[in-house]
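Exercise: predict the fold of this chain.
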Amino acid sequence: MNTRIASAFAAALLAACTLAACTTVGPDYVAPELSAPATWGEEPGSGLTRAPAELDAWWSHFQDPTLDALVARAAQGSLDVREALARVHEARARRGVSSAERYPSVDAGASFTRTGESENTPLGEFVPDFDEYRVGFDAFWEVDLWGRLARNLEAADADLAATLEDARDVAVTVEAEVALTYVELRSFQTRTAIALTNLQLQQETLELVRARFESGLVGERDVAQAATNVETSRARVPALELGARVAENRLAVLLGLAPGALAEELGAPQAIPVPPLEVAVGVPADLMRRRADVRRAERELAAETARIGVAEAELYPRLTLLGNLGLAAEEFPDLLDHDSGVFGFGPSLRWNLFDAGRLRHLVEAQDARAEQALVRWERATLRALEESENAMSAFVREQARRRSLVEAAAQARLAVELAQTEYREGLSDFQTVLISERALAELEDQLAESDAAIAIDLVALYKALGGGWEHGALGAAAP
C-alpha cells in the first residue's frame, strides 16, 4: 500500500510540474510615457532657480525650529497618516493572500462515524452497525495553466505599491497642512500685534484731539471721529484672536491631539516664517518621478492591466489537482496498522462552455477599467504640472506685491507723522489725520498678510513639487 501511495503522488507531482509550464494570458504591462515640458512656464527670477529641488525635508528651509518639531510630531501622531499606514498593512496582507493561492492547500482532519442501517429496509436486518475511525490530509492545488494566479499576484503587487504611494501622498498633505496652519497662526498673531500697535497710536491721537477740544481749538466732531477710529480698530482684534485660536486648535488635531493641547506651547506670538532667498524647483520631468499621486496612478494602471489577464484566464479551462492521504479503520487500535492506509488522487477540469458572453463582457469591462486608469494617470500628471506652475506664479507675484506694500507702508507712516504735526500746528484738519491713520493700519495689515501669503505660496509650491514623502519611515518603505 505504501509503495502504491508513493508512486501515485510521484506521478501527480510529475503531471503538475508538466502542466505548470503554462501560458500567461493578458497584456504585459508597459509603463506609459508622457512627455513633460523641458522647462517651467514661469521664468527664472524672484527667488526661483532651476537647480535640482531639495525637497526631502522642505519645511526646514524656513529655519523655524517650532515648525520642524510640529511636522515631526504630525508624522507620528496624525490620524490621517495612521489610517493610511493601516491601509498599507491591509494591502500587504491581501498581497500575501494572492501569493498563497499559487501553492497547494492542505487540510488535516479526523473523524469518527458510527453507521447503522434501518431495520425497515430489505437488507437492514442483515447489515450490522459499524464504526469507522479516519485521520488524514486533503490537498487542493490549482494548476495555473493560463497565468490567472500569476496575474492576480501581479495586480496585488501593484495594489500594494499604489497604497503605499497613497500613504506617502497623505503624509505630504499632512506636512503641508501643518506648515500652512502654522503660518496662519503666526500671521494672525502678527496681525493682532500690528492692530494693537495701531490701536495705541489711534488712542494717542484721540487723547490729543480731546485736549485740543477742551482747549476750544477743535469741534466735538473731531473727537467723535477719533473715537470712531479707535473703536473700529479695537473691533478688529477679537476676530484676529479668534483666527489664531482656530489655527492653534487645527494644529493640535493635525498632530492627533485634543483642541487646546498646544495653547501653552504656541500661545506666545512669534514671527511669520521667512522663506529662503532662493528656491530650487528643478525641471518638470523631476515632478513626474517624484509626485506620490502620479506614482500611485501609474501603479493603479498596472494593477488594472494585470486584471485583464485574470479576466481572460476565466475563458479557458481551469485544472485543479485533488488528493487525500490518510488512515481508516473500524477499530481504533487498528488505525495505525500498515494496512489501514487510504489515498485518493485525481485531476478536476472545469471549463465554461456557454454563458451567453458573460465572461467576454467581463474582459471588455476590465479593458475599460484599465483605460479609465490610464486617463486618471494622464489627469494626475497634468494636474501636477498645473499645481506647480500656479504655485510658482503665485509665489513670484506675491513677492512683487509685497515690495510695493513695503514702500506704501513706509510712505503711510511718514504721512501719519506729517498729518499729526500739521494738525497740532493747525495747518490741516483732523480728516487728514484720520485718513492717514486708517491707511497706515490697512497697509501694515496687508503687509503682514503678504508675508504670510509668500510663506503659504511656498508651502503650496513644495507640496506641488511632491516633496516630503521621502522623510521618515514612508520614504524607506517598500511594497
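Check your answer against the key: The chain has eleven helices and six strands.
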